[in-house]
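Provenance and format

Records in this collection were gathered into a single text stream. Each protein contributes a sequence line and a token line. The two records reproduced below are adjacent in the stream.
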Amino acid sequence: MKYYSTNHKAPLATLKDAVIRGLAPDKGLYMPESIPTLPESFFKDLHKKSLPEIGFTVANGLFGDDVEKTALKKLTEETLNFEIPLVKLSEQVYSLELFHGPTCAFKDVGGRFMARMLAYFTQNNDKDIYVLTATSGDTGSAVASGFYNVPGIKVIILYPKGKVSHIQEQQLTTHGKNITALEIDGTFDDCQKLVKEAFNNEQLRNDFMLTSANSINLARFLPQSFYYYHAVAQLGEDAKDIVFSVPSGNFGNLTGGLFAWTSGLAIKRFIAATNVNDIVPEYLESGEFNPRPSIKTLANAMDVGNPSNFARMLDLFKNDHDKMAAFITGYTLDDEGIKSYLKAIYEKHNYIADPHGAIGYAALEKLLQPNETGIFLETAHPAKFIDTTEEVLGKKIDIPERLELYLKKKKEAVELSADFQSFQDYFYSLK
């Protein structure tokens, strides 16, 4: 399969070129020429299939022409070697727990898949590849874990100073070896802008092999479609009128769900649930897309003022606002609302959510219709936001051992301004 740019001004690319390049030469995001419709037999027997089986079938439909099947099966099985359970809170509402991977966040799926795919495509390279990643919290830790000690790949993670939780920062800054953390004096949008400027800088591209592990890279966001199928599978063969409420920042997760729907998965509609960085809900309401500087919130992984994957969403709906707004409903919740719903979920269901999941749950509380089945994505373990959850709930939150280990390590990060020249100068200091 070939891949085109959302800006439609770049040549078609192979999967290998699209994954290694990350961003298209015309600054657009890569999209597959077609999204294969999966066979009816696959959906009929979906409830009988394991997560790795689902992942391989979906991956084979998307990537089967470009990756040898045995390698793709191994890649998928290694990526999906942890549980993603669907937890029933009520007759209508379920939580899809995406935090059972090594870094306790949903981005483990995309990060691990991309690391293995990039290693597959570059196994015979004689030049190091530099993976650039901007993170608002969880992307960086998943990428660091996925790429740690992978030969021939060096990872540089940019995160906004003072705008990630303590545990998240420890996950970003304590790996060492081929993982470097840059603490940027700015916002996530500043970090993301630096990454994009690097890709658009001809001198840097000539002197370094660059790629990205943000969801601008299709090998990062496409695997995030896997768990939508798995969620529906866990509901059983009679599942219908399914609504997914997706806590959204850069919108890679929701776009992955749209790919699953486009391939034939029976999803009635989506809710784009955001914090006060409500650029996409505003667009869905008004038809106007107005990116702006992000605002810091308790749900920091969603503090994004110019979501990259919105370009893919527009592309999927052929820039038709009315069609998108008919299928995706926007929802916004501020910090006081987050606290209120964290408490409400615990009191009503004896369930501890994280701030991002609380927004997804709140959207279902407000927008789910009778006879619909609502699934909200619980995107990170509540212990990653322990200060907020313990304060709101008034109880101690257990920290998983795999997170506890990061707290015992020493932070190592390079402080930089949000100025591109400083970033470029740092890069050349690596040579």
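Adjacent record:
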Amino acid sequence: MTALLEARDLTRSFEVSQGMFKSRRTLHAVNGISLDIRKGEVLGIVGESGCGKSTLARMLLGLLPPTGGAITLDGTDIRSLGRIGMARRVQPVFQDPYSSLNPRRTIASIVALPLEVHGIGTVAERRKRTLEILDKVGLPQRFADRYPRELSGGQRQRVAIARALVMKPELVVCDEPTSALDVSVQSQILNLLMDLQRELGLTYVFISHNLAVVEHIATRVAVMYLGRVVELAETETLFRAPRHPYTKALLASVLTPEPGQGIPETGLGLAFPDPLNPPPGCPFHPRCPARLPQCGTAEPRLVRLERDAVACHLADPGHGASAQS
């Protein structure tokens, strides 16, 4: 499958203030990520809060320049495309459908705005295209002249999806698109995204905390921890036979509906990792139940294993610290 977008050795750091009398510190939000996003696939990205998922999404959208590394779209560096060029081909769907919609505009004008910005079509042609895309996302014509406050959360997210698709992009970056919705509405939006992907031949990057959602929609999954990808695998493989101890812990953390099971024990402890003070060696080793002696001193590289990849010393047949990517 051909790669539509490629990221190579992406890094993004921020200078963080610790107070008036303390020096600023560097936060490495994304730390050396390389990804290929293939045409027609749904790449899921999962990980704990603060692992760098949303920062990575903003870089893939061209909204945030990387500190290091490069992103190419069909072999062209996105820096040469500019914001307008990127927006024609890559569009976002954000987490909160209310805050991402202008409350002073009607639904039709919100959806048609990208067409206006890019100077596509006449007023009548833009109106026609807007009504067509609203129909595709399941909103009848009567919604066109309403305002976001008159719509439910699920309907507002359909508007956000329509706005993203009205430009006919090749890639859609969905950053937690269902987390602000009721569970009953989440399934409707997920099914809508899947139907549109098949019908329009779209490629998705789908970021979520919800592993059940990712398992349902993604074809491949990248697991992030402290700004790094620690495992990348086909969805079925990752959920059936995870290789990285962190992936195993994430899957073990999923609540079960069975009565009497209680809260699952992941073995990760109660404290989250500190991105301002990452540990030496493997960033996961302080929480890892299977750590080796070298895990505290040598950072593992992303080891390629057939179609999958994992950044763990345990993936090295000799349990050595010199695995090559």
